[in-house]
Design brief:
265 residues; alpha/beta; Rossmann fold; 7-stranded mixed sheet; globular
């Protein structure tokens, strides 16, 4: 399967160390939302190069499996696994298109599903629903959580708004009569030392994202704003972070299934 991510594995890995927003805000906020994974089995959908897949394993998860449709990303992730021997597994899956038949490698096999920056790359509402369905099917028939970083529906698209954080988000098409269609494409550009790359993301409304989650069988949804670490505040100062915290480009969405969910979909 080809994707816009195939040639970006090393570039994506570079953002982990070169972007303050990832080191001091994204990662610690997400892991705090995920909570203690010791002893859990975890499926990391849209795992890309395995950045979070490896970290979940290091945090104590007994089994961690990454799933992605990008062969290029998975080649990088598997190469690292071969060298580092962390005990992480990787599967080729288009998580936005769950199979009509059972998937024994995934269905009901995990205590927790994670997904960092996976929902913004679902280009249609149907594929967004498919992504949440994949997450729900991977969990037990009763219970389980899916924690994901989603694009903030209120994300700023003014040119340069996130420039201090090495991010730029701009509309692909102008608004029509002041309105913007649900799922409108955006160009996301990352600029770090000696490297710039762009991706196409899709801005889904809060209502559409929640509908996709609920239709898949998640009943309790919580939106969480990311927070800066104390170290990040000391190193960069409150003024530096204020613009981002006023309008973060992503939010964490925690989806919980409970006993009312009798439909495995």
């Amino acid at each position: 399967m080809s994707s816009q991510f195939d040639d970006l594995a090393r570039a994506y890995e570079s953002t982990v160390t070169n972007m303050a927003v990832r080191r001091h805000l994204e990662y610690p906020s997400y892991m705090a939302a995920v909570g203690d994974v010791a002893g859990l089995t975890v499926l990391d959908i849209g795992c890309g190069s395995g950045v979070y897949t490896r970290r979940l394993r290091a945090a104590g998860a007994t089994r961690v499996v990454g799933a992605d449709q990008s062969e290029g990303m998975l080649d990088y992730a598997r190469d690292r696994e071969e060298r580092e021997q962390l005990g992480v597994e990787y599967l080729v899956r288009d998580v936005t298109r769950p199979a009509d038949h059972a998937d024994p490698a995934v269905d009901g096999a995990f205590d927790l599903v994670t997904g960092v920056y996976v929902t913004p790359y679902a280009p249609t509402a149907g594929q967004l629903c498919g992504l949440f369905t994949t997450a729900r099917r991977a969990l037990p028939a009763e219970g389980g959580r899916f924690v994901t970083y989603a694009l903030n529906p209120e994300v700023a698209t003014d040119p340069g708004y996130y420039a201090d954080y090495d991010i730029d988000l701009v509309r692909v098409e102008p608004r029509v009569d002041g309105d913007e269609p649900d799922g409108a494409p955006l160009t996301l550009t990352i600029t770090i030392p000696e490297l710039t790359f762009s991706l196409t993301a899709y801005r889904w409304s809060l209502e559409t994202q929640e509908h996709a989650a609920r239709s898949a069988g998640f009943h309790h949804l919580t939106w969480i704003r990311p927070q800066v670490t104390d170290e990040g505040l000391r190193q960069y100062g409150e003024v530096y972070w204020k613009r981002y915290l006023d309008c973060p480009h992503t939010l964490i969405l925690e989806c919980v299934a409970d006993r009312r969910d009798g439909d495995r979909r």
